[in-house]
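Researcher: Please predict.
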Amino acid sequence: MNPRIDSKITSPQPEVLVAEGLQKSYDKRHALQGLTLTLREGRILGFLGPNGAGKTTSIRILTTMITPDAGSFSVDGISSDHPQEIRRRIGVLPENLGFPRQMTGMEYLTFFGQLYGRSAANARETAKALLEDVGMTNRAKSLIGSYSHGMKQRIGIARSLINDPVVVFLDEPTLGLDPRGQQELLELIQRIARERGTGIILCSHLLSEIENVCDDVVILNQGQIVARGTVADVIGRTQQNIVLKNSMRIQVPPDYVAKAKQALKATMPNVIKVNSISETEGWIRAELVDAANGNSDKTYLINNTILSSLIRAKIPILSFVVEGGKLQDVFLHLTEETIR
């Protein structure tokens, strides 16, 4: 049994990654402004933010690809002053990982095992065990060029584990997979964290998968942390500070956005604010007065009336979502000015 898992049973999960006040600027642009976070053994941390929020810069710093202008971090107790030692304790699955088409999965993992100093025999045994862990035993001797995208992602995850890392960084691991492939890969990630005691940082734009899989979450916006904690705590705290349950997001054809906003403002006494979330995709948000006073039946009637007013104005409704209690709602509120 992994000794890290034994310790987890009898004592609190130790910190495997600690970052304090990380900063990075490019010329006059502040890409990262004081990133502070902690990742504990066996937990999955969702790392979120709109494009340009500082996620890529953060990951490049934490994987020792670039150095911060200020701040520090440690992995497994090793200071960022020793990047080579940190690299031996982390695993990385980048968003676009290239694979040699003319190597088999077994050959590929054995090669990387030897790069980390394992003997040829030990590297082969490690590769065999990892192929079994990621469900690729039956394709171990097939050329990687014959693998599907999902198979390559599994091999990529196996490669990120070849050195038995304490922290693994996964960047969009389910991108391009069908729903079944996504589910299977997420279950694999959870199993890795649970059985190996590995801390995982998961970057994804699919907020539903972050909510379902991750223990903790960090949301970045314009280089700063705007929310941090367990998924449940982040959702709960945000609901206390901003009105989520009395809002509705409505998607109409982009050409109808202006007309829809005008119709809602002119005809709906329960609507106190209407704004665009994404005009290119036709999403608008209507914020409502708290007329229901906790009465869910009255809330539904208000929602129905809003939709009816758009239908009477002959505005096509492509989709609508009553906000509240979802990580996606929190994310949209906290990063609204950036993604609008």
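Model: The domain at 3-99+147-230 is CATH 3.40.50.300 (Rossmann fold).
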